[in-house]
């Protein structure tokens, strides 16, 4: 937990394998409602300092790794 008050908490959760809405369900089980989520990485592919709404070309190695998660 990075920050917590009586009505608001902010934290980082790391999971190695996730299903759709898993984080929301985990927090709900602890009595917390998720307002927003931000994915920071998939495997070794990280968001880094890329601004919201921006994009960049993936390297060949990044494409190969990303395809391995979905194919």
Q: Please, could you describe this protein's structure?
A:
- There is one protein chain.
- The chain has 71 residues and is of the alpha+beta class.
- The protein has helices spanning 22-29, 60-70, and strands at residues 3-4, 9-10, 41-42, 45-46.
- The strands form two sheets. Strands 1-2 form a two-stranded antiparallel ribbon.
- 0% of the residues are buried.
- The model has no long low-confidence stretch (mean pLDDT 87).
Task: Give a short overview.
The protein has 71 residues and is α+β, with helices and mostly antiparallel strands. The protein has helices spanning 22-29, 60-70, and strands at residues 3-4, 9-10, 41-42, 45-46.
Q: What's the average pLDDT?
A: 87
Please give the share of residues in helix: 25-40%
**Head-to-tail CA distance between termini:** 34 Å
Per DSSP E runs of 2 or more residues, the count of β-strands stands at: 4
User: What is the gyration radius calculated from CA atoms?
Assistant: 15 Å
Low-confidence stretches: none
Helix-strand pattern, N to C?
A: EEHEEH
* Strand line-up across the major sheet: 1-2
- Range of strand content: 5-15%
Overall shape: it is extended
Category from helices, strands and their pairing: alpha+beta
Total number of helical segments?
2
The biggest beta sheet reads:
2 strands, antiparallel
């Amino acid at each position: 937990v990075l920050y917590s008050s009586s009505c608001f908490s902010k934290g980082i959760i790391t999971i190695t394998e996730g299903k759709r809405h898993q984080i929301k369900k985990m927090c709900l089980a602890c009595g917390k409602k998720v307002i927003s989520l931000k994915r920071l990485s998939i495997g070794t592919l990280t968001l880094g300092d890329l601004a919201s709404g921006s994009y960049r070309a993936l390297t060949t190695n990044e494409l190969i790794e990303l395809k391995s998660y979905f194919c």
